[in-house]
């Protein structure tokens, strides 16, 4: 019996607290709060939980949380709004650079296209004599 919550197959051989994190939008701490609210032990494996508790769990999650596709859509709309109003964060998003103030001189090589500009950095070419 595969357990599906908000369109996601939940692994049955994992602890309930970890298994709920397979749903986009639920992390470990929020999974613990949900299980505590429903009254299910977070250390039980999913296949050991009764059918009534799984129905309670599914109803709690689907009624009170924004998850999966709707949450992804909401995040995309927030980023789109930042780009449209021309904020600094929106510009960083559109250029594909770090948004939250990380340094870019030494890190984020993969984001910037692995540019190696200075003499000492990068691969050494084979010297010809």
Keywords summarizing the entry:
two-stranded antiparallel ribbon, single chain, mainly alpha, Helicase, Ruva Protein, domain 3, 129 residues
Please outline the helices and strands.
Blueprint: E1 3-5, E2 8-10, H1 16-19, H2 28-38, H3 51-64, H4 68-85, H5 88-95
Antiparallel strand pairs: 1-2
Helix pairs in contact: 4-5
Characterization of the model:
With 129 residues, the chain is mainly alpha-helical. It has a domain at 3-68: Helicase, Ruva Protein, domain 3 (Orthogonal Bundle), CATH 1.10.8. It has helices at residues 16-19, 28-38, 51-64, 68-85, 88-95; strands at residues 3-5, 8-10. β1 (3-5) and β2 form a beta hairpin. α4 packs across α5 (88-95). It is elongated and about 70 Å long.
Summarize the structure.
With 129 residues, the chain is mainly alpha-helical. 43% of the residues lie in helices and 5% in strands.
CATH class category name of the domain at 3-68: Mainly Alpha
What share of residues is helical?
40-55%
Distance between the termini: 70 Å
CATH-level-2 architecture of the domain at 3-68? Orthogonal Bundle
Within the CATH hierarchy, at the fold level, what is the topology of the domain at 3-68?
Helicase, Ruva Protein, domain 3
Strand order of the largest sheet: 1-2
Q: What about the largest sheet? A: 2 strands, antiparallel
Oligomeric state of the chains present here: single chain
Low-confidence stretches: none
Morphology call: elongated
């Amino acid at each position: 019996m595969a357990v599906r919550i908000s369109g996601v197959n939940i692994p049955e051989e994992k602890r309930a607290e970890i298994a709920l994190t397979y749903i986009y939008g639920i992390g470990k701490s929020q999974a613990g709060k949900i299980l505590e609210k429903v009254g299910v032990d977070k250390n039980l494996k999913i296949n050991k939980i009764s059918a009534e508790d799984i129905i309670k769990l599914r109803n709690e999650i689907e009624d009170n949380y924004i998850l999966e596709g709707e949450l992804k859509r909401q995040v995309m709309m927030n980023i789109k709004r930042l780009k449209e109003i021309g904020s600094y964060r929106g510009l960083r998003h559109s250029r594909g650079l770090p948004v939250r103030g990380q340094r870019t001189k030494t890190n984020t090589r993969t984001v910037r296209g692995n540019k190696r500009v200075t003499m000492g950095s990068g691969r050494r070419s084979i010297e010809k004599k």
